[in-house]
Amino acid sequence: MGTIVNNLLSKREKFLMTIVDFLAAEHRRCDEIFTIAEEAAHTGDLAGCRSRFQQFQTAMEQHFQKEEQVLFPAFEQATGNAMGPTRVMRLEHQQIRETFAVMSTALANGDLEDYLGEAETLLILMQQHNIKEEQMLYPMSDRFLGSVADGVIQALREFPAEPRQ
Amino acid sequence: MNTAGLSLEQAPPFSVPLRFFLTAPWFLVLAAALILWEGPGIFASRWLPATLALTHLLVLGFMAQVMLGALLQILPVAVGVTVPGPRLTAALIHLPLTLGTLTLAGAFLFGLPVGFIYAAGLLGLGLGSALIAFHIALWRAPVASSTVIALRCALGALLVTVILGLLLAGSLSRGWRFPIVALTDLHAIWGLAGWTALLLAGVAYQVVPMFHITPPYPRWLSRGFAPLLAGLLVGWSIFILTDWTLVARIAGMALTAGLMMFAAGTLYLFTQRRRKISDPTLGYWRISMVSLLAGAALWLLTRWIPAPAIAPQVELLLGVLLIFGFAVAVMNGMLYKIVPFLAWFHLQAQLLGRAKVPNIKRLLADAPVRRQQWAYLTTLLLLLAAPIHPAVFTTPAALALGVTGAWLGINLFGVWWIYHRVLDDSTNTAIETAQ
């Protein structure tokens, strides 16, 4: 499943230069899959919703792991601060993962109504998290990482497609 | 490297923003009661004491409550800074603002000079506390994003609005000599086109693309709009006060064109929405942006008509479109996103997996939201008809406004009620388990 995300990387995006551009583009791709899954739930297509949600969750998990294993450690090293913004971002990832679990349960029960309610909740939770990253953490990473930023983008690009369990 | 300025911890205590959100709708009800009490005469001119009282119940009682409460909540998310001492700050803003609004409305209604002094003191304290707290926070913003730029301009405009308001209160209570008509116009323009429109723009840059999944605002618009508008406001004000009529007119038209561009741009983004399922908040956004377009167009039209020919009705229509149509609509809509989400968020933080947290649709279902939206739209149309045919439409408009405000208040109160019930249930369960 994770390979889908990498296949979605267009040629243009391979030339993007900043952390903001690279990781915000991943947010947009995840948003896209989210809306497709939500649309399926709305039309009562349980099977379609299950497969799209699975795809969405995999894409998000991979994105989280890239941040937690590549970007955040680099940011913490550059700023000497492991208890600041990155700690909050990790906590919010956990919160989002917990909401995924509730959404999975709703789908396992075949309860699309419940899924849609949880999806609405997730959308706000996820987007306020994304706003913090795109407005602050990523631009600050670009600024603080300086010459290391290119290496970080390279590492994000080469991150294994299958999420580590 | 210094990252100390960056605080991504969100969420002041729930009570901090909630007090503003639960208070605001009841000022709509109070405004409705005032219209009923005054009768059709209230729509004769915008300069009547009762009309001025009505205006301030809406702009201070509803709009300022919602905007200041929301700022306390969103600064950590959108800007990365927290407001120091959130509980104390919230109390220092909320209580004086609420009492000051009531006092000001009373002072207008009963023509009490001393009332304006008390109102100026209370509102000066409440809005002054807000200005100081938010200015300190925004200065420390680690990244000057387009939202930070717009919020800084909006707060600057609030400062000008408050100073002009205090000067006007001085002239009504102490007989200070000012060009009172020009100052009143500037006070209204800075409050609506400055503080309100720029704050909403700053919030829209993030809320529209992220929560409705649309393309982003073009960068030139999101970065340039607020500074350009603020500059035009400054220029316009100077030209008005120095009687440089022609240049003032041009600056005013440029400002209006800017607002129309923002409204049209936002409406266009909604047509590019990727999220296909319907969202009740979207209706409020569309009503708001259409009202802004209509209000701006109407204002432009009045510039081509000689001043004496402008009927007082046109000014009242402008007020209805810009205050109730543009500002109240979008705030009403956003409250339906903010309050249930905050309730969910704080429940999740407090229950820590001990009980299932109801999702936001269970905290507030779509059906009552949609019904209240119909009430809102009916009210807007009736309020637009009232200045034209006061004898027929005043009472229906007032009743509709009362229903709309009370319905919003009840819907939001319902979220708070479920929040407490869930917390109580989980505490009881925990006690039973322990026994």
Q: Can you offer a commentary on this structure?
A:
- The complex is a heterodimer of chains A (165) and B (435).
- Chain A has six helices and no strands.
- Chain A is mainly α.
- The longest helix of chain A has 34 residues, at 46-79.
- Chain B has helices at residues 15-38, 49-79, 86-110, 113-139, 146-174, 180-212, 219-241, 245-271, 280-303, 312-351, 360-363, 366-385, 390-434.
- The model of chain B is unreliable at 1-5 (pLDDT under 50).
- In chain B, helix 6 (180-212) packs antiparallel against helix 7 (219-241) and helix 9 runs antiparallel to helix 10 (312-351).
- Chain B has a single domain, classed as Cytochrome c oxidase-like, subunit I domain (Cytochrome C Oxidase, Chain A), CATH 1.20.210.
- The termini of chain B are far apart.
Topology:
The complex is a heterodimer of chains A (165) and B (435).
Chain A: H1 2-8, H2 19-42, H3 46-79, H4 85-108, H5 112-145, H6 149-157
Helix pairs in contact in A: 2-3, 2-5, 3-4, 3-5, 4-5
Chain B: H1 15-38, H2 49-79, H3 86-110, H4 113-139, H5 146-174, H6 180-212, H7 219-241, H8 245-271, H9 280-303, H10 312-351, H11 360-363, H12 366-385, H13 390-434
Helix pairs in contact in B: 1-2, 1-3, 1-13, 2-3, 2-4, 2-10, 3-4, 4-5, 5-6, 5-7, 6-7, 6-8, 7-8, 8-9, 9-10, 9-12, 10-12, 10-13, 12-13
